[in-house]
## 1
Amino acid sequence: MNRATRRKATNTIFVGLCAFATLIALGALVLILWSLVVNGIGGIDAHIFTMDQPAPGSPGGLRNGIVGSLMMCGMGMLIAVVVGILAGTWLAEYGGQTPYGHAVRFLNDVLLSAPSILVGLFVYELLVKPFHGFSGYAGAVALALLAAPIVTRTTEDMLTLQPNTLREAGMALGAGRGFVIRSIIWKAAGAGLLTGALLGFARISGETAPLLFTSLGNQFFNANLTQPMASLPTTIFQFALSAYDDWRRLAWVGALLIAVAVLAVNTIGRFVARETHRS
Amino acid sequence: MVLPFRREWAMDSATIDNAVAIRPVRSQNPAAETIFRGLCFFAATLLLAALAGVVVSLAIGGWPAFRQFGFGFLTSSEWNPVTEVYGAAGPIVGTIITSILALGFALPLALGISIFLVEFCPHRISRPIAIAVELLAGIPSIVYGMWGLFVLAPWFATHIQMPIMMGTDPNSFWGKLFYGIPNGANIFTASLILAIMILPYMAAVFRELLLTIPAQVREAAYGLGSTSFEVMRQVMLPYVRRGTVGVIMLGLGRALGETMAVTFIIGNAHGFPHSLFDSGSTIASTIANEFAEATSEMHTSALVALGLVLFLLTFAVLATARALLAGQKN
Amino acid sequence: MFGDMHMFKTFVAAAGVAALFASAAPAADISGAGATFPAPVYAKWAEMYKASTGVGLNYQAIGSGGGIKQIKAKTVDFGASDKPLKPEDLNAAGLFQFPTVVGGVVPVVNVPGIAAGQLKLSGPALAAIFYGQIKTWNDPVIAQLNPGLKLPEMPITVVHRSDGSGTSFLFTSYLSMKSKGWADKVGASDSVNWPVGLGGKGNDGVAAFVKQTQGSIGYVEYAYAKQNHAAFVLIQNKTGKFPQPEAQNFAAAAAGARWATAPGNYLLLLDQPGANAWPITGATFILVYKDQANPESGAQVLKFYDWAYKNGDAAAASLDYVPLPLAVKNLIRKQWVANVKAGGKPVYEAK
């Protein structure tokens, strides 16, 4: 076999392997989604959104969990995205190569791997125990602590990859460093930053353990962040491991809702980003 | 007006060293500059403080256990809540094995997927497929756990474990490697689930990295007549090498700390796993399993100490990975 | 796009939205946390209670350990535990505990040819199986207890709980009672160093493994055994009989128990006397402070459980829980007056 044929063959094998890898991932997704849909779709009706968590045998829905999750995830993501992007920017643009910067980066990666239950415990010591009460705020902070490292990591990686020519061009026009970052670099890395945020959201959307120690959960509807709040993952966790069929069905519905929410946020997020870029 | 010279701005471009403003512009407000830089620094420090806080609270909570068992806590595999003797070796070994296996499965898959989506996939379907892969990240981990327990484990037991058990001599090397109760709940299947869980994060970030490579770089390589494989291997992958480290850290981080998905399917035996298909436990699964019900002070302290050990483990793994990769850089 | 002004505007908008949500909405009046076992029945009772009195009781199942920790940290109005605290621990923490509802632990098997309720085991035999001493189903000890039953020569796979749980605590306490070897070498706790077998997470995990593995034996809460139509095992009780694992037989165990003489209500309903008493039964407990800092919330908690004692029996039974006998309930009511006080006066007196 001469060299050209060998190179071509290697290439074909390579393409085949990459396609195969994609098929595996898609296959796993289909299998898991299939379980979700088969078990969850039967339980979806208007009640899910209008009624609160029931006791076994009573009619009910997931309203309090949905509202609680929206509020705590929303607030958590707000904190995580702000802190994460700013911190990632500092690492990429300002002090990333200093010893302090190395420490921050390294410890950020360690925080990434923290079992969520331990982060929840920390927030419990900080925001629950001293105040003698569980609250939605504590839950939001715990979620923020889990999403922020992902956003930071991704932000730093994306920003570092932007070519220096962009920075030089901006500064040559007389713009200040910060202005260059905000108006040029952030825009250029926009898609990557968005990915970081979406991944952070995907992570915290299904987190249970930290919420158990911070927001506790609530059987009734509560939109007051200073009180214990329900959330979909904690409800799912409680219902899925119970003996009652109606509770288990609600658990699958809740899981399906979370997956759909992540899909919706991903799709909408990318759509909005594409539209903004176009203009 | 001359821009004050700052050392940190001297990246690898001489132009910035000599940057001189032509005329003051609104975008050059020094106060805004300082505030912005200060905010960024504050955010980074906030993260550092948060982590320091977590470590401190773990150290305080775990101190009674360390004081009681000393270094033996790390080497003993006896975990007995009744006699209040705790040793973390079993979960430590389980964590290391499952994380390495999961990363080993997930990394090539993630690379393959992102390369496929960026290079070979027809443009129209690449975005939906990318979103589909990211959707894997959005499935709550408890669903992974339940799917693993009710779907993967029985399938694995019938279609993989049984045939292997039938086909190998129990005393041979392969027999010993694959020995285990055929119910699909072991460290191997737990690693498979973990791999599927960390896959979307790695694939998504890696895809973004590849998309950032300027078109000229790729086109130049293609212009020279390289095949896609060669362009990828010799041009694109080296370009994103630093980002690849980040991708690996992301995946490793998730694998080390993942709880729910692993707990359902790892069999949760406290000792050392004796084979690939044996039950085991990880640090995260042990904490998740026992924390809620742990009533005695020592039990709780031992679990918190286990959490601290996980942090130290992550420190060690990440530091080693960095050292290895730094050595590779030319 | 990210000019300073724009960022500022976004911050203000976000703060406004947050403030909107943070506006006061009526929260639950009482909060409690702890044991997972009674969570469904407490949820049912809370729902009924709110419908009838308008007072909300928010109970969350974070585990018995969690319940004890939280009541000690005073972050909840009451704690709940499947494991009763010993009198010395109660006194050290200034807590009072009382039982609310009863449940049982049922061993289940997956042995070809054996249907539900066919297999009979004694306490010592059960301990020997879980210890790993009895390794196959056709072992003479098992055969002796089951004359006429065809037992296959199949290895026994033990399935236990991987997570800490009150169910494990009850089960291992029973095994410790019935086997000195077990008591010495393994002991009783929500989480033990199991000599053999694999661990499933939750009752579900155990039930799933038993279902998937031929020749296996595990143990689950009564509700799970009933809902999943599992092949349950009959255990020999103190009088030598083999009662069915049914609600009335759990109640029989609770009725025979001597609550009045148990200090701090520390009582495990294991191996209780009575022809129909199921041997592996247990109550679940509520923990409140003896000296209430807030007499109003203390009264609310006791009022709720008084209401539940009066009106909650049917609901509990429908969820496969076993209500306490009336005599025990009246005893508890008297104990409230004597033990739960604020400033020297009892916070609540049941009418």
## 2
Amino acid sequence: MTHATDREAIPEPQNPLGVDGIEFIEFATSRPQALGGVLETFGFRPIARHRSREVELYRQGTMNIVVNAQPADVPRTVMPTERPVISAFAVRVRDAQYAYRRAIELGAWEIPVRAQAMEINVPAIHGVGESLIYFVDRYDEFSIYDVDFRAIPTVDPHPPAVAGMHFFGIVQYVGPDRTADWTEFYSQLMGFTPLPRQVRFGIMPSGLLLESPCRKFFLQLIEPDESARFAAMDEHLQRVGLGTPDVTAAVASLERRGVEFLATDRVHSSERGALTKPLLGGMMFELVKSTPPGAGER
Amino acid sequence: MIFRDIGMATASLAGSLETKLAAVRNAGFSQVMIAAADVVSHPGGTAAGVRAVRASGLEVTGVEALRDFEGLERQLHAYKVDVAKAMLGICADLGGRLLLVEASTSKHASADPAAIARDLGKLAVLAVPLGIRVAYKGQPWSRTARDFRQAADIVLRANVPNLGVAVDAFDVLASGVPLDDLDILDPDQTFLVQVSDYMWQEVRSAEEQAVTATHFRVFPGEGAHSEALSEFIARLDTNGYVGNYSFDVYNDDFLQMPPEVVAVRARRAAVWLAETVLRRALPVPNVARLRALRG
């Protein structure tokens, strides 16, 4: 009998790391209170503070957002400025150390272990631009926040989500002709797969969608349009996509809370999705119609 | 400038980094291949070397060369990964988008194509966040890839989008690889073409080829193989290659001549190449746009 792989391509397991959604998304800003104010209009509540650093944890429903105002002490990481930028996202995996070692083996750049940007004791690799990707495996019974964070007293540690909102994905801007490179990066290191071009979510149809192997979130890679092809290459995590089963209801409740959405001929709220006006100098959130993972088919 | 796709290499010139860059620029070139050694050996340190390149206004064709990288195991591999990361860092600091990797000549290197492809794939993944493409070049005296055909096989096997092939005209001319074999190259996975000529009619042995390659190259149009070189470039052009051409000229004599004199020779070669061989009548605006036109 010949070896099975001599005859046909046996694909590797689709989810070798046991990827299981996003644990948190981190923003860096030198004005954490301003960002906190914005996050609260979206329904996030501050629930914990880092024990030793200027880092706060906001939460609603299943979503954790870390606001980091600590000056960067690792090369190629975000130095907080007034305009908040997405400085990291943390991926839930079965075994964080395994995921980290495997990523390094395949060509990821490690972060010096003693100087984790957030001092949360979780392994991380360099992502796009100055951003980081964390691997987190403690998210069931106890969490990474138990160790490094101190809960804010009298605050509900599990505030409910507005309109069933959950992390849907992250939009990443890439340079000209760079979609294939980044697709390779995410598929090699974490098992993401590109979706056919005709599969679309929300109202912002540009770029290529990559689906996580757990099918719980997406990365959307967007190249500059023709007019900007000759500009210097700028690659970064551009915005967070929030999923909600009912965009119209979500827009209505967020507008009541003071969030403003774009309403132009080209981009305006619909039942498929919505895009906020730029906040704090350029930060945006996008709403996308989506059923929360675990609540049936999307 | 009609020859904006053609660049010189700092390795062809004597003098300080600033002197080399000025000679390249004053000869009318808009791009230059940077030898990493020229940057890190800057008397003011690496950062000063980077500043000099940035200040020159020249576009960086790429950084050369990572050597003996692939096919190693354990601590040798780990060591070379560190070297590679340092070179990728320099390349990114320079604003370069390409790292040239020369096929390994290390006797410790495995010749197993799967291992070589895996290592180069890893290198390419390392290069992704920095926006750098990796160009793998065969060498006649290498254990892992002796020419562009073997390099292309490895690149195909690795199947990573930012890993491609660098083709050196010298290797083709001196090794007598048939020009028809250039047709196997995917123009989109061909990241760099290096051109040079040499004076002798014939190279008799691999040793002689190695010595010629590293000491006796001249600029295109100056040597004994102008016609073959023209055919080589015309073939690549016909096949749809729209990337850069770099003068890969190592010559002990040139390193004893004033860099501006050598740069003028390079300029003459570039004019010869652009007007006689390439006939690219218009400045090439952008690779992507040309590809779009080609459909």
